[in-house]
Design goal:
Blueprint lengths: L1 E5 L10 E6 L6 E2 L4 E6 L4 E5 L4 E6 L6 E2 L4 E7 L8 H8 L12 H14 L9 H9 L18 H10 L3 H9 L3 H6 L4 H5 L29 H16 L2 E9 L1 H18 L6 H14 L5 E4 L2 E4 L5 E3 L1 E3 L2 E3 L2 E2 L7 H17 L12 E5 L18 E5 L3 E7 L2 E15 L5 H16 L2 H5 L2
Parallel strand pairs: 12-16, 16-17
Antiparallel strand pairs: 1-8, 2-4, 2-7, 3-6, 4-5, 6-8, 9-19, 10-11, 12-15, 13-14, 17-19, 18-19
């Protein structure tokens, strides 16, 4: 039975998507829920899973095409017999013999097929995230051979990068293996699985342009990804439609560091998550937002919408660009819940598995340029929000404390705000309230 594979229903805020990668070609077998293609939207990469086992019979949309909800992408034949991709080459490899009249034994192809199946069993290729799958394919790697550190043993991008660092020339090794003549594999049955049973993700080596001559002034034109183009559009819109202004302050993190040092081991043991800085900043920001609610508001035409809930966006940098997943009702969550949710969002962002629902909404955003070494910056508001808090690098500096010079771990803070509805007085006092809460964490517990 033929089944059409269509673009899934896109969210209301997403008009279309770009088909960036096909993971199967006509004639390839596919399993139920295995990823067939990747669709890139303005916010996330969506996977298109197969609804049933079968074989891809037709692909109707080439890579790079802009598609809309419900559009037919491909056709699969459900229940069709998958071609024996592993056993056929093995039989060919086993055919040559020292005796002209000898025939190949059927046991060799069976062993090859079993070896291939066992190699694929430890890790389902359909469960790889788009960024991990792309890295595996480009380097012709067998995902089953790479130890996974993600949840349920899933591969992360860091796992693949680390594996490449330990094995610097996997592509060359794969090319060398594929170049072994059939006669060589026939004479050595132990190497037959390597030659004749490539993993489903293996691809022929991609022809690359010759390296430029020494001293050449090379250029490369690469189109923006949809996410990068959307980021550029939103940043320009924010600067052209809002009256943005930034105010700065600095915070002494001695109390936070002492608190973390005292309880981090017990906290991790009992709550199952590390105690980081971000939960303190989220708590401090919420306490300040409750005192100055206009920084949690947004502009709609000539109206100001005051949000009486606190959906805090936490900016996360990925290889595709900056994304801002939302911690819903952050004011109702304790430190452990905040740390777990933020860590989970960071993992999903790196794996490319964030859902659109994770990125929509939000009333206030926190961004941390300090993880990259930034000492001071002016973040841009994530419209239609009206303010954003910027964290920076923790650096020891000499400070005057009670009339004495002492070395303290200091961080510069910045809040960029929409001056149309937020006065400078409110922005400055908001930042001071965050500073006070962080320098005396007990205030957050007591609500003062």
């Amino acid at each position: 039975m033929s089944t059409e594979i269509r673009v899934p229903q896109l969210p209301e805020s997403v008009a279309d998507a770009t088909l960036v990668t096909w993971h199967k070609q006509p004639g390839d077998p596919i399993r139920r829920d295995e990823n067939l293609a990747d669709l890139e939207t303005d916010k996330v990469v969506l996977e298109v899973p197969a609804p049933a086992n079968g074989v891809v019979s037709e692909i109707r949309v080439p890579s790079g095409t802009v598609v809309t909800s419900g559009q037919v992408l491909a056709v699969i034949e459900e229940g069709a017999a998958a071609p024996a991709r592993a056993s056929a080459p093995a039989a060919t490899a086993a055919a040559p013999s020292s005796s002209p009249g000898a025939t190949a034994k059927p046991a060799a192809p069976q062993k090859v097929a079993q070896a291939s199946a066992s190699a694929e069993a430890p890790r389902d290729a359909g469960r790889l995230s788009p960024s991990v799958r792309r890295l595996v394919e480009e380097n012709h790697l067998n995902p089953a051979a790479i130890p996974g550190s993600g949840r349920d043993g899933r591969l992360t991008k860091a796992d693949v990068v680390d594996y490449l660092g330990r094995k610097p020339a996997p592509a060359a090794a794969a090319a060398a293996a594929s170049a072994v003549p059939p006669s060589a594999s026939a004479s050595s049955p132990a190497t037959a699985p390597v030659v004749s049973a490539p993993t489903p993700l293996a691809r022929a080596p991609v022809a690359r342009a010759p390296a430029p001559a020494a001293g050449a002034r090379a250029e490369q034109r690469v189109p923006m990804t949809r996410l990068r183009a959307r980021i550029a559009q939103r940043l320009i819109e924010a600067q052209s439609t809002q009256a943005l202004l930034t105010t700065f302050n600095e915070v002494d993190l001695t109390a936070i560091q002492e608190l973390r040092a005292r309880y981090k081991d017990r906290f991790e043991k009992e709550r199952g998550v590390k105690l980081g800085f971000m939960s303190f900043f989220v708590k401090a920001a919420i306490a300040a937002l409750k005192k100055f609610p206009v920084l949690n508001a947004s502009v709609d035409g000539n109206d100001i919408i005051y949000h009486e809930f606190y959906d805090i966006g936490v900016a996360v940098s990925t290889d595709r660009g900056l994304v801002v997943p939302i911690v819903r009702d952050a004011d109702t969550k304790d430190f452990a819940q905040l740390e777990k949710e933020i860590a989970d969002f960071a993992r999903k962002a790196r794996e490319g598995s964030l859902a659109i629902e994770d990125l929509t909404g939000g009333t206030f955003t926190i961004t941390n340029g300090g993880v990259f070494g930034s000492l001071m910056s002016t973040p841009i508001v994530n419209a239609p929000q009206s303010a954003i808090l910027g964290m920076h690098k923790v650096q020891e500096r000499p400070m005057v404390v009670n009339g004495q010079v002492a070395v303290r771990p200091m961080m510069y803070l910045a809040v960029t705000y929409d001056h149309r509805i937020i006065d400078g007085r409110e922005a400055v006092q908001f930042l001071v309230a965050i500073k006070d809460a962080l320098e005396d964490p007990g205030r957050m517990l007591l609500g003062i």
